[in-house]
Amino acid sequence: xxxxxxxxVSKQTREMLVKYFETTSVSVWRxxxxxxxxxxSQRIRRAAEQNGGVLLMLTPAMETIHDAxxxxxxxxxxxxxxxxxxxxxxxxxxxxxxxxxSWDNVxxxxxxxxxxxxxxxxxxxxxxxxxxxGSCALYVVESLPVQYRAEVYRRYPDIKEQAESKPFVxxxxxxxxxxxxxxxxxxxxxxxxxxx
Length: 196
Prior knowledge:
Elements: E1 4-8, H1 11-20, H2 25-32, H3 39-50, E2 54-58, E3 63-66, E4 71-76, E5 80-85, E6 90-95, E7 98-103, H4 111-121, E8 127-129, E9 138-139, H5 146-155, H6 157-171, H7 176-184
Antiparallel strand pairs: 1-2, 3-4, 4-5, 5-6, 6-7, 8-9
Helix pairs in contact: 1-2, 2-3, 5-6
């Protein structure tokens, strides 16, 4: 779940917004939950705030623990962890035990940006390319939920094998002499009897 904004209003304010803007309750809901950003939705949000609406930022629940070893650890859903060393102001962002990103000399005011980055890692599917006019959307397979990832590997078993063999391919060093041999190699045409 990524953080999202929402304006909370009373039932009476919602009904007033529907009448005042001559729209439907669904349109008001879409405007207040920032699902639509049309000029009318912006006016609905402004009117909601002027009539007692409260802007909320909805984020995944997180637990913060201050340990005796002078570390602060924030646990988020999806195996995401923010680990702050209070001795040297070093912060690590981890996903499933692996360090994704690190910062040095972090100030308390910078922690909010790190938390927002951590929330993005919480079980979100990573899109590499969006779909557009005949091209398919591309997603990072490892970011998919387990059941979908298993289905991808069931349908395309060679994908996992290719991903696992990638470190081997990267470790192969090209041989200059061999490359030159194949660059110079010429395949001579074969002639069949009776043809020029």
